[in-house]
Amino acid sequence: MTPFLKTIRWILWKDLVIELRCRETIASMVFFALIVILIFSFSFSMDQQAAHDVLAGMIWVAFAFTGMIGLGKSFSAELQNDCLEALQMAPVSRGTLYLGKVAANFAFMFVVEILLFPMFVILFNVDVVEDLSLLLVVFSLATAGLAAVGTLFAALTVHIRAREVMLPILLLPMVVPVMIAAVEATKGALNGDPLSLYRPWLELLAIFDVVFTIVSFWMFDFVMDA
Amino acid sequence: MTIHRVIRHVQRYQGWVGGGAALCLTVGLYLGLLGSPPDYYQGEVVRIMYIHVPLAHTALLGYTVLAGGSAWYLWKRDPIIDNMCHAVAALSACFTALALLTGMIWGKPTWDTWWTWDARLTSFTVLLLILLGYLMVRTVVDDLDKAARYGAVLAILGFVDLPIIHFSVEWWRTLHQPQSISMRGVSIASGLLAPLVVMSVGMSLLFSYMLMIRTQLLYLNRLLDAKKGRLLHQFHMSKADS
Amino acid sequence: MSMTAISCQHLGKAYGHYQVLHDVNLTLAPGECFTLLGPNGAGKTTLLKILATLQRPSEGHYEMLGMNGQTDRDALRSHFVFLAHSTHVYDDLNARENLAFALALRGQRPTDHDIKMALDRVHIGAFAEMKTRHYSAGMKKRLALARTMLARPRILLLDEPFTALDSDGTAIMRDYIGERLSDNGTVIMATHDPEQARPVTTRAGRLRHGTLQEIALDSCVRRNDGRDMQPDDAFS
To answer: Distance between CA atoms of A87 and C106, rounded to whole angstroms?
Structure first.
């Protein structure tokens, strides 16, 4: 394995080990999402049909906001004992650090999404298609987009005042295309529509992922390096 | 640090730019409000277009300058470029907000609603949010270098995102509202075109003029801070020696 | 090998209108240990952070081992260790994992034996499997020292290396600095306690209001005694 991949793997390993020991990030994300679901059910007194119509939207509102918690924590956790400084002084390219963090953030967000999706289906009592593999494709593409931009912005906001507020303020407008495409594609996948109907949205997500992983990879230099 | 040579050039030419802006805007407003015929479909209401469209064009042009300047700053790290970016962002945000506002005023008589999730209105709203986020970052980061770097990164990311946002929003609208009235559907008669062009040029000149003034202001402020620092330092040293 | 390990020319750093460093010039040869004295707020940490590539100077430039501090940052980073005031330790990893991760980022792969030796040398070998959350401040500092030992840097930047350490820890730290120096390493050490730094120091300088003045070793020690904490030093 090249040193490049090794560094990415070490960062991923470090974040996963710490998470497995503390379960802080994933637990708070799931807990927060449960509250969001609860509020949704209060806000709209829904019958099954209405729930079915807005399910995709609710899912992505919950995922985006829980994702924000995970992204914020991924860098604020590095402030303990100033570990972020150690990362900044590491003799590896900043892009490697970025990809390692993106991998970890993607893992956390994806796990939380997998845990939350059944809860949505059960609590809102909706019928969904049996084959969920396409839904997983939608989730992973959209989550990759959120993680690609989100990781950069989390690094950017970690040192500034009011970072908990600034991260969503900066991130959400940027990921408008991801949210639109994710909701539309999720709708299609949940309804069991033919793939050709929502395939363009998947392509849009894929393009967003590629473009913003490359741009953020390059920009991470300027965020992390003084 | 001394007065930047760019500032010297700017000071020499800014009067011409300001005068050009005043001239173009006066002529454009005259042509638009009095010298051109009312629109066949929209009547007198169409005249707000001569404000709205130039504002929107200039805001987009400003954003392009912001992204270019940001890339340049990250490359060369010239402080005056950063001051220019900061000024451009504030002005672009104002122009975007005004474009949205005039768009809403135009929308009331034409679509009979202040607001519709039209593709253009939506993507301009997102643009405004990105610009406001940029300005917020610049105010909450104390370290000037850091604020400049972070701002530049945000601006470049937003610039890459802009076409994707516009494309996705437009696509989403056509899916949900295929019969949506399009502002662009109406072909512009040549009588309406001349004032539009003059107004667009005038608005861009106005933007440039304000940009020149604001950049100078920010840069001189930076010089002042540096000078203050040197004086304070000398003062401390002289006190320490005595 | 070049004859200068570190050279700073006209380094300056300003935060807005506050000038933290002003025209700092310093040239160090391999085998030298430069002790940086000065009251709180004099700019010691800022100077070290600039050398450690954590901040950019607003004026001037510096070189380390012939590498430019602005342009060769990636290459430069594998040649120094900055032992900062904070320990750069992950509280939820144990000592062994902390070392393995930190060294892996430097592209090094210490064996379990190496790690054990390093931990034993700083006398925390018995706590190798304990989460560092339960460590005391001194133990964390020792762990950071063990990390530095494993990294074997040619340049060592130390910010208040003796704080939080007991007399045993201080002795280990001093031994290690001496060892680096005899191995032709270069050390810059910021401290407000010149007595502890004295045995290893070869040159010393004093920062006041961001200006560096080189001073004779003996005079600095005497002059500095008991003067450091006077308020007029820091704020005058």
So the answer is: 10
